[in-house]
TrEMBL record:
InterPro entries in alphabetical order: Acyl-CoA_dehydrogenase, Acyl-CoA_Oxase/DH_mid-dom, Acyl-CoA_Oxase/DH_mid-dom_sf, AcylCo_DH-like_C, AcylCo_DH/oxidase_C, AcylCoA_DH/ox_N, AcylCoA_DH/ox_N_sf, AcylCoA_DH/oxidase_NM_dom_sf
Keywords recorded for this protein, A-Z: FAD, Flavoprotein, Oxidoreductase
Any single biological process term in GO: fatty acid beta-oxidation using acyl-CoA dehydrogenase
Name of this protein: Acyl-CoA dehydrogenase
Pfam families found in the cross-reference section: Acyl-CoA_dh_1 (PF00441), Acyl-CoA_dh_M (PF02770), Acyl-CoA_dh_N (PF02771)
Species assigned in the record: Ferrimonas aestuarii
Cellular component, GO, one term: cytoplasm
Cofactor(s) the protein needs: FAD
Highest taxon in the source lineage: Bacteria
Gene Ontology molecular functions: acyl-CoA dehydrogenase activity; flavin adenine dinucleotide binding
Domain Acyl-CoA dehydrogenase/oxidase C-terminal: 240-391
Family: Belongs to the acyl-CoA dehydrogenase family.
Subunit: Homodimer.
């Protein structure tokens, strides 16, 4: 196998890198200062340039306005975008919209595609995904208490969700609820497309996470769906297909996250390397000349490189086979890359000293924001169990 970027990716890397470094890095202080309205105005300007240059939505097919890259090609580009926490948002491939667009593309009805997929893919509207509930273990969503019942030509939905990322300002939510509580466990739930202005939908609050309630795409909400009435056509895919669709949505989503984390880790490493050379710890010596600091940097860099090859290999494996056959590999990169990011950023913060915990650099933001990488889309432990089960099964086959 050969992970040399294809000619197409090679031609894309330079303009993408230029936009990220020249236009997005200067906007990061707005993010760090929680100046979200000003930030979104500037992001919209960058988005226009991205579209003009034909770099929009690299993960989506050309039929819906994307670039139609393979997963491996997107992996290589996505790392470049991940160099800034604003990269994916500016290029139209941020969670949860990226996963929701892929879901509608593969399982949405023609009407859902016309009304919601097209504007979502073009970045004209945003969306959110509401599965996790406050009082039940999100690691095992089959415990879910949310319900949807047929009432004539409508579904009546009752659900209390939380950690619905980017709900504030979203046009619609994809809501998971049980439709057949007596069916076999994995066929009990279904997915619904619920416009956010439907009567009975309320955003209770943006949850304060690591000291910030965020805003818009940078927020996580507690949501209530009380006697929410949607037409039968709001069902996505088939009745009882909810968990299967959630898995098909999360498969690519997990790989997308890993690629983004690689970009963030690379940023932390570059920033630390440069800082070590600048920071004098005595009249003659910089930190870069201290063996302990050198060893810390080298260890972190090796962790990053190992995770990078594992992620590229997994993306390649999915392109060659499919998500089901690559399930163990996807679980392994999910926990391995999330842990790598945490360790690399911790090293970077440590070697920046007091500066590392301030908001004068992006490191503290990444440290706070991405602690959750080891929890969302499945905690480390759950992926370790899942990978182990697959590996043991393969050994017995
Ligand atoms: C920043 C962020 C964004 C999110 N965005 C969304 C979103 O947009 N939509 C959405 O629906 N949800 C979202 N979530 C929810 C996320 O998917 C859940 O937090 C996750 O599935 C874990 O569920 P839980 O928090 O209920 O933890 P629990 O299931 O209660 O687990 C708690 C801890 O127990 C351990 N654990 C769990 N199961 C096992 C096991 N079988 N064996 C060993 N240890 C175990 C793990 O360490 C786990 O972290 C988000 C979460 C975060 C933090």
């Amino acid at each position: 196998m050969d992970f040399t970027p294809s000619a197409r990716v090679q031609s894309l890397l330079e303009p993408v890198q230029k936009l990220v470094r020249e236009q997005l890095l200067p906007l990061e202080p707005l993010l760090l200062a929680h100046q979200y309205s000003e930030l979104m105005v500037e992001i919209d300007k960058v988005r226009r340039v991205v579209k003009q240059q034909g770099l929009w939505a690299p993960h989506l097919p050309a039929s819906v306005g994307g670039m139609g890259l393979s997963l491996l090609e997107f992996a290589q580009l996505s790392q470049c975008l991940g160099y800034s926490p604003l990269g994916h948002l500016a290029f139209g491939c941020q969670a949860p919209d990226a996963g929701n667009a892929e879901l509608l593309l593969h399982a949405g009805s023609d009407a859902q595609k016309d009304r919601y997929l097209q504007p979502l893919a073009l970045g004209e509207i945003r969306s959110c995904f509401a599965m996790t509930e406050r009082h039940l273990a999100g690691s095992n969503p089959t415990l879910m208490e949310s319900r949807a019942e047929l009432d004539g030509e409508h579904w009546l939905i009752n659900a209390h969700k939380w950690f619905t990322t980017a709900a504030q300002g979203a046009e619609f939510a994809i809501v998971m609820a049980k439709t057949d509580a007596d069916a076999p466990k994995h066929k009990q739930a279904s997915m619904f497309l619920v416009p956010m202005d439907t009567q009975g939908v309320s955003r209770v609050r943006n949850i304060s996470v690591m000291g910030s309630s965020g805003h818009g795409p940078f927020s996580h909400a507690e949501m209530k769906f009380e006697q929410v009435r949607v037409p039968k056509t709001a069902l996505i895919g088939e009745r009882g297909q909810g968990f299967a669709l959630a898995q098909s949505r999360l498969g690519p989503g997990r790989i997308h996250h890993c690629m983004r984390w690689l970009g963030l880790a690379e940023r932390a490493l570059h920033q630390t390397r440069d800082y070590l050379s600048r920071r004098m710890v005595s009249a003659e010596l910089s930190l870069a000349q201290q063996p302990v600091a050198q060893a810390m940097l080298a260890r972190a860099w090796a962790q990053y490189e190992s995770a990078r090859w594992l992620v590229l290999h997994t993306a390649w494996q999915v392109d060659q086979q499919n998500f089901t056959d690559a399930k163990a590999a996807i679980s392994m990169i999910k926990f391995q890359t999330a842990q790598m990011l945490q360790q690399v950023v911790d090293m970077a913060v440590q070697l920046h000293g007091g500066l590392g915990v301030t908001d004068d650099t992006v490191l503290a933001f990444i440290y706070r924001e991405e602690r959750a990488a080891r929890i969302y889309d499945g905690p480390d432990e759950v992926h370790q169990l899942s990978a182990a089960k697959q590996l043991i099964r393969q050994g017995m086959a």
